[in-house]
Amino acid sequence: MPIPNKKVAAPKSAKIRIYEALRDWIIDGTLKPGEKILDSEISNYFSVSRTPVREAMQLLADQKLIEIFPGRESRISEIGIVNVRQIYEMLADLHSLALKFAFPKITEETITRLKELNKKCADALSRGDHTDSRKYDDAFHDVIIQLADNDFLTDFTRTLQCHVARTENLYYDKLADKKDSIDEHQRIIEALEHKDLPAARQSMHDNWIHTVDLLEN
């Protein structure tokens, strides 16, 4: 039989839909640290059995976003359950490594895209739109992650960035000086334009460490 060239994305399973919804609610603060979470309420909300709910919750527990106490209760993890500085340091190393993997594939179009995203991030910060600034900041780094094209690296960074996003959403008032990130992005871009991989990797690393320094201060 003739098969269409265009692939149709498979529908998401109930487990993945619930996992993604709960993950986003934890990240944006809808579900707060320490809050009790009931699989019965979630199954009713999504009109599914408890099985996919428990499977989704186990995925979140594996990522340290919720704590499951068998036979007792489940709660949203406190921010302190993971070492925030260690997460940023791991992400600094992973994104620096991603830049190394992506470097041979970086083109003029890539650099133009990075410049566009950095400008959008700067514009969002100037008008006080922290939601958009974080969106464009994430997109800036995602350009490199996608070019690196390494499934393990992608999975590791996404898991860690869930904790970063959650932390920054809860404490964004301490990150008002994120404008420095625009300059750091610019240094990454300039190093790439000069084909200076060591300088680009150092600037990428500094970009992540600067944010956790702000949090700690």
Would you identify the CATH H-level superfamily of the largest domain? GntR ligand-binding domain-like
CATH architecture of the largest domain: Up-down Bundle
The percent of residues in helical segments reads 55-70%
CATH class wording of the largest domain: Mainly Alpha
Structural class assignment: mainly alpha
Q: Give the termini separation.
A: 64 Å
Task: Characterize the biggest β-sheet.
Answer: 2 strands, antiparallel
Global shape:
elongated
Q: How many domain units?
A: 2
Fill in the CATH topology of the largest domain. Four Helix Bundle (Hemerythrin (Met), subunit A)
**Order of helices and strands, N to C?**
HHHEEHHHHHH
- Determine Rg (CA atoms, Å): 19 Å
Oligomer state of the chains in this structure? single chain
| Poorly predicted tracts of residues | none
**What is the beta-strand fraction?**
under 5%
What is the number of beta strands?
A: 2
Number of DSSP helical runs: 9
Overall mean pLDDT = 87
Features:
217 residues; mainly alpha; Arc Repressor Mutant, subunit A; Four Helix Bundle (Hemerythrin (Met), subunit A); 2 domains; two-stranded antiparallel sheet
Describe the structure.
This protein folds into two domains: 14-80, Arc Repressor Mutant, subunit A (Orthogonal Bundle); 83-216, GntR ligand-binding domain-like (Four Helix Bundle (Hemerythrin (Met), subunit A), Up-down Bundle). Helices cover 68% and strands 4% of the residues. It is built from nine helices and two strands; from the N terminus they run αααββαααααα. The protein has helices at 14-28, 39-46, 50-62, 84-102, 108-126, 130-148, 151-170, 179-193, 197-216, and strands at 66-69, 73-76. A two-stranded antiparallel sheet has the order 1-2. Helix 4 (84-102) crosses helix 7. The protein starts with 13 loop residues before the first helix and ends with a helix.
